[in-house]
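Let us practice reading a record.
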Amino acid sequence: MKRARQTPPDAEPIEEHDSGFVGPMTLFDTFPHNDTFAETHTLELLPNPTTENAEIYTFMHNRQDYGVIDMVDAKLSANLCVAVTIGGAAPAADRNVCVNMAPLRYGWKTKAVYLNNQLITPQSSKENELEFTHDFLTTVPSEYLNDKNINLMIRDTPGSMDTTAHVYDGAAGNNNLGARARYNQIHEDTVFRCIDKLDVLGRVKRYVPTSFDIKVVLTRLEKNKVLYGTAAHCGLVELKMADLKLTMPILKPNAQLSAAINDLMIQKGEECRYYKITHRYVAIPVPINSRHIQHKDIFNGARPARLVTKIISQTRYNGSFVLSPFSIPFPNITRFAVSINEAEVPPVITHSKEAYINLRQVLDRRHSEMPCTYDEYVSDYGMIVTDLSPNRDGFSQVLPNSTSGNLGVKIDFAADTVAAQQLICIGEFRNQLSVGFGTQARLKYEV
């Protein structure tokens, strides 16, 4: 008789990992539009206050009978114009002032989103940089060029991003063609109708029931990061936003789906679960005369799926009318390494060419369009992106699941730094949001 295989009593138990998220997302699959929805409305949320130059705008949606909101198509719109701060008159024709790109998308210092009175967005005063970084890593030029005259997503000209001369007078030899194009849309007494997307739930690709309370609080970005041009001219004007509103499509389900939602969420207490992307922003000063820097404990706990690292001057970090807030020259380094639990994770970057090839691999753009050319990457888009999703620990062992860890960076400069700089690390976390009927929202882990 064959004996059953037995595990020795002193053997270690097998470590089990879940998939990183609990259960399949089956409560709200993609709906067929032909027979599921009876009608479609548009939800318009007006801000409080309604003034054109408020510092903080609050949009609120109170729960109502069951419908479904399409959060992916949330749009923010306003009539934009540049006006003199005192008196509100249009600036003179010789004022060298334009707005930075996509003012309704990148024009906010903070963005707080509350779902059922629970804050679901990590708070950062660098919302404009987080939005720009996500767009840079997820879109290609052909995706936004068609809409440039709708949302002013017109980038500064690479290689001349900090050239402010003659923005108001293209005939005088202006090298920053992007700034000149934005000036043509908003100058003197010209009013520009701007419509742009607004990410509310962290790139959620699913529908949200209208039975949730939703509150969005937007805080304006510092003026020296919104306006661009001659500092003296920019200091006397401001960007005004008239008729600002947030719109989202509401789809009214038919009676059968409404009954199903009601049964699942109210009677059975089921929750809606959504995958969402959140970012955490950490800035570390780089002192003058630095050659080798090493920082540990940048992220300690849940490990980000991607790490975006960039080094910019302290002046640009603080904000300056004469410096583009989105220019990131590739740093003068000889070695860059990311470590998890104090052991380095490949690849180790020693040159800008290696960083660009690594970016192509991380974005999986081996056979498609990159967000910028190599020369543009060196001059103005030199962020280093490290993919941590293969789930290697510090000793290159592949783990079956995303785990926690102590993440750090080590950088060797080619020469001693001569100016104050900021080392900026942006962690991209893939989280899960859960919310039920009348209950507070919660994330799988705190970022």
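A brief commentary: The first helix runs from residue 103 to 106.
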